[in-house]
C-alpha cells in the first residue's frame, strides 16, 4: 500500500471554493476512476489556515499513474475545474508526498 498526501495551498479566501469543488465535483470523478480517499483535513493550527490536506490510498505507483492520469485528462473534469476558477484561481501551489507504512504502523 502507498498513501499519497496532497496539500493544496489556497489563495487567501479561496479555501471555501476548493472545499465546494471537492464536495460537488471532484469526489464524483474520484468515484468514477476508483480513486479511494482516506480523509480530508483543514489546518487548525499551523503556518497557514488556507490549506486543505488529503490522503489517497493506492496499491502501487502503477495504479496511481493509470487512475490519476485518466482523471486529470477527463475533459469534463477539465471543463468543470476551469469553470470554478473563471473568476480567480483557487490553488496557489500543491505539495505532494508518497508515503509507505512502517512495519509497526496501524495502517498498512
Query: In which order are the strands of the major sheet placed?
Result: 2-3-1-4
Taking pLDDT < 50 over at least 5 consecutive residues as the criterion, the unreliable ranges are none
Mean pLDDT: 96
Task: Characterize the main sheet.
Answer: 4 strands, antiparallel
Short description:
This protein is of the alpha+beta class and 108 residues long. It contains 3 helices and 4 strands. It has a domain at 2-50 and 66-91.
Overview of this structure, please?
- The protein is of the alpha+beta class and 108 residues long.
- The protein has a domain at 2-50 and 66-91.
- It contains 3 helices and 4 strands.
- Strands 2-3-1-4 form a 4-stranded antiparallel beta sheet.
- A hairpin with an 8-residue loop joins strand 2 and strand 3.
- Helix 1 (15-33) packs across helix 2 (61-72) and helix 1 packs antiparallel against helix 3.
- The radius of gyration is 15 Å and the shape is globular.
- It starts with a strand and ends in a 9-residue tail after the last strand.
- The mean pLDDT is 96.
Keywords:
108 residues, alpha+beta, 3 helices, 31% strand
Amino acid at each position: 500500500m502507498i498513501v499519497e498526501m496532497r496539500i493544496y495551498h489556497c489563495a487567501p479566501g479561496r479555501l471555501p471554493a476548493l472545499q465546494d469543488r471537492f464536495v460537488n465535483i471532484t469526489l464524483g470523478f474520484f468515484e468514477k476512476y476508483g480513486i479511494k480517499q482516506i480523509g480530508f483535513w483543514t489546518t487548525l493550527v499551523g503556518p497557514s489556515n488556507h490549506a486543505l490536506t488529503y490522503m489517497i490510498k493506492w496499491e502501487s505507483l502503477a495504479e496511481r499513474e493509470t487512475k490519476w492520469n485518466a482523471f486529470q485528462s477527463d475533459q469534463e473534469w477539465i471543463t468543470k475545474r476551469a469553470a470554478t476558477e473563471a473568476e480567480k484561481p483557487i490553488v496557489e501551489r500543491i505539495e505532494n508526498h508518497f508515503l509507505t507504512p512502517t512495519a509497526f504502523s496501524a495502517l498498512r
